[in-house]
């Protein structure tokens, strides 16, 4: 997944565009320090899934730009915009779609 929005004490521009795996250690640290919900359930951050085992294609974001909405010292708000998306086929994926697999075909 790719981080799209960061608006919580302990998150900033450096966190944008990273995967949850890349951010896990930082997430657990600010969870202990500030009570941050690592799942983002309190609106601490937003994310976009660009690849997972169920996808036959990877979503590729094009023209990504980072934008500062608020330069607050305690909780700055940063987000990413993108100009478009393309689908990149993945090798070794079996099946045509989740729907086709769900009905047995």
Taking Cα atoms only, what radius of gyration do you get, to the nearest Å?
17 Å
Stretches with pLDDT under 50, minimum 5 residues: 99-105
Question: What share of residues are in beta strands?
Answer: 25-35%
Main sheet: strands, sense, barrel: 4 strands, antiparallel
Shape: flat
Q: Give the strand tally.
A: 6
N-end to C-end Cα span: 29 Å
Mean pLDDT: 80
Strand line-up across the major sheet: 2-1-5-4
Order of helices and strands: EHEEEEEH
Helix-residue proportion: 10-25%
The helix count comes to 2
The structure class reads alpha+beta
Description:
It is a single chain. By secondary structure, the protein is an alpha+beta fold. Helices cover 19% and strands 30% of the residues. It contains two helices and six strands. A four-stranded antiparallel beta sheet has the order 2-1-5-4, with no helix packed on it. A two-stranded antiparallel sheet has the order 3-6. It is flat, with a radius of gyration of 17 Å. Mean pLDDT is 80; it is low at 99-105.
Task: Supply database-style keywords.
105 residues; alpha+beta; four-stranded antiparallel β-sheet; two-stranded antiparallel ribbon; 2 helices; flat; disordered C terminus
Provide a concise account of the structure shown.
The chain has helices at residues 20-34, 98-102; strands at 2-6, 45-48, 57-62, 65-70, 77-81, 84-89.
Give the arrangement of secondary structure elements.
Elements: E1 2-6, H1 20-34, E2 45-48, E3 57-62, E4 65-70, E5 77-81, E6 84-89, H2 98-102
